């Protein structure tokens, strides 16, 4: 049986790991590499990194702090891929085919594209043609707008698109997305649980795997995402950053709920 | 030295990283002389079949692969698309001729009405025949990471040494003499995946 996947999502800003809340507040957490080395030995099924650095933004406050910047995203990909033998997905600031190529060359397995997919819808198909569908995960960030309707936002939650998430999900599937990474802006960092209504709506409207993110505060929320939302994979950020042995605990919770999940494996050092 | 064939498709770095981690000497290359000198060959790859064959042709790699693997019997490991390329034919976005080392065709999962999603992405169990040298000593049931929409439909079931279920059973691992091939990604399947690469390196 194909197992449900548990996927930590790490948000990066200017080389630092951050905790995100409603896409607007970001708390610095430190070294993204140390975190991944813990996660690997804890049996995560995959790993997603989303780089939310703005090109025109530079966090000057960090210069006098203890946390050293890890430099650019490519250094991080290279470092992580040398020790982490699970699928690695990188998203953020992808604008060209060359951007994808470079991430893969450094050790990424898949990429998440988001804003560019909306700005240039052909980019989804073009990239899927070059790298294969399985490589192209389309990120869909959803917020409940002023009319109390679900709407897709791009530009890290800042730009309204006028698109309903179901319409957009079907479009990205048709154009060649291999998976959908669905995040709820309203739930991000709130620990209130997934937006199951949204998730179920998307799962029911496409036939590619959906990864749910946004809102997990307790491990039981993962069960809701799988059982009620019907997703192929559950993802979260903060719970993995703040809870010790979080992957092991999350997997135990899922297993006890009768969900078929990959057993916890200790990584043996063959070297 | 293991030659990891660079034909412009797929994530070669992952395979190289896994071999480095295991302390196995390897080189990412499409240089014919280097491939001739290598003890073993890995053909990795993700992406479309047609592109894959086209690139192998463009880089003049077909002749050297045939010579080293079929005539000189060098141990060969095909990974994912690399497994599919050694088949006779593929029906991925058209009809394409493959390397033809295995009498099989590459077809899409047809899962209509079964509520199964394509691509087949994630960790799935493989029922392993432990008599194969790349599986010996392991568990009968192992879990590997898959990501593909097409699978190898094979006539001669005796070359299948690992079966996986997705809708129906499909070959996850095949072995025909010195030719090994896996549909999943051993380089992305942690301990059990790395073990396959390690055993392959000792052949």
How many DSSP-defined strands of chain A?
Answer: 12
Assign the CATH superfamily of chain A: Aldolase class I
Strand content of chain B: 25-35%
Q: Which class of chain A in CATH terms?
A: Alpha Beta
Q: What would you call the structural class of chain B?
A: alpha/beta
Uncertain ranges of chain B = none
Fourth-level CATH superfamily of chain B: Class I glutamine amidotransferase (GATase) domain
Radius of gyration of chain B in whole Å, from Cα? 16 Å
**Cα separation of the termini of chain B:** 12 Å
Question: Mean of residue pLDDT of chain A?
Answer: 87
Give the topology.
The complex is a heterodimer of chains A (271) and B (203).
Chain A: E1 5-13, E2 16-21, E3 25-30, H1 32-41, E4 47-51, H2 73-83, E5 88-91, H3 97-106, E6 110-113, H4 115-119, H5 122-131, E7 136-144, E8 150-154, E9 159-160, H6 165-175, E10 179-184, H7 196-205, E11 210-213, H8 220-227, E12 233-236, H9 238-242, H10 246-256
Parallel strand pairs in A: 1-4, 1-12, 4-5, 5-6, 6-7, 7-10, 10-11, 11-12
Antiparallel strand pairs in A: 1-2, 2-3, 7-8, 8-9
Chain B: E1 2-5, H1 12-21, E2 26-29, H2 32-37, E3 40-43, H3 49-58, H4 62-71, E4 76-79, H5 81-84, E5 87-90, E6 96-97, E7 102-108, E8 120-128, E9 141-148, E10 150-154, E11 160-166, E12 168-176, E13 179-182, H6 190-201
Parallel strand pairs in B: 1-2, 1-3, 3-4, 4-13, 5-7
Antiparallel strand pairs in B: 5-6, 7-10, 8-9, 8-11, 11-12, 12-13
